[in-house]
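Because discrete structure vocabularies remain unfamiliar, we turn briefly to a single example record, giving the amino acid sequence and backbone structure tokens:
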Amino acid sequence: DGSNEPDLGAEDKYQQMCYDCYRNVETVNNNTDVLIQFDGGSRGNPGLSGAGAVIYSIVKGLDGTFVIDKELHSVKKLLTGSATNNQAEYTGFIIGMELAKKHGYRNVEVQGDSKLIINQINGVSECKSKNLIDLCNRARFLKSELENINISHIHRDKNKRADQLANQAMDSGAVKII
């Protein structure tokens, strides 16, 4: 067919990557359905900020609905310097997507409690803030790398584990006065 990709038969695809990238893909989970929930927070806005993301395995029904099975991975990050809540939210999305990519997941549901971030990533609204444009572009690039992805909003009370991770990240950088 003229492509540089080897024909492996059926629907199999060959993904070219360097040795270091191959070594860093812990497992190839092309057919595993996962849910990424992300969150970010800032104490001061701008101020001390952290982000968190959690990846769950899910079971999908024929109608597209899904049920969370179990937690597979989690990640948290303390942002350096002073950052806004929106910068932290974007960081939560990015670290969650990078973790999914590292593990080779391709069928991904993503949920977060920031309508602004979700609408900007999905292209529903434009990202105009100079502080967010690079993060938005990174998030959109990561979204484009996955084959099957759906990004949606959830209420804050449904996003507790990601919120917990973001707060743990902030707690790790907080100055404690004794």
